[in-house]
Amino acid sequence: MELLDGKKTSQDIQSELKDLVSKRVAEGRKAPHLAAVLVGENGASLTYVNAKVKACERIGFTSTLVKLSESISEEKLLAEINNLNINNDVDGFIVQLPLPNHIDETKVTLAIDPEKDVDGFHPQNVGRMALGLPTFLPATPNGVIELLKRYDIKTEGKKCVVVGRSNIVGSPMSILMSRKGSPGNATVTLVHSRTKNMAEITKDADILIVALGVPEYITADMVKEGAVVIDVGIHRVEDASAKRGFRLKGDVNFKEVAPKCSFITPVPGGVGPMTIASLLMNTYQSVND
Hints:
This protein has ten helices and eleven strands.
């Protein structure tokens, strides 16, 4: 069993981007500029956004954090998004999810200029991805693809099962794994909460990608010997014996499943850091000059 070290791989990618940015700046061109919009005081969202801002600083990107009140109206949030759309100094931006209940996330996604949509959520970018055209790929699925690529994991002709059908991870993941290219060319099955005989399907997978959002849902009896397992989930589970009062767990029961795997991502330190690396790659791609 070998760990797919997302933390190290993300650091490698950031180092490569740092060199590219240094070269740009030395040539008199602008550094890429990523903006992040954070609505409210959600602790997990604040942690994620701060990690993205710090990553920008490390590699020489310009970054802007737009912090807005939890009570901001939808109209005012859309106006802030429009300001970022027309700001020529900002190359790409994200609106951190989830948003407060009174704001329509679909409206917000549609309001973002597709050419600045470095999260890859706009329908125009999703459509281009589905057609295999150049575009911003959703950060988490693309992070998984990059991890598979850098560990030289063969996907062509393999049976890949994706657990979870969200628009952010599961659905785009299934498209990327089945498209022509490498990684890709896998035979993909997408399963979800309404799938019958889940364990029978997952146990047939050469590559199992789990993004269901249920802590430790995947157990050893659901995994084939020698499978590659990618765990996208991350959950804070209360644990009085832990120093911080909680432990981070994924959608996979790591202790049970890891001994059966050829490769597996840890939680934390697996897919999470790759999401940030992918976002930075998209931002670098968004610079027009």
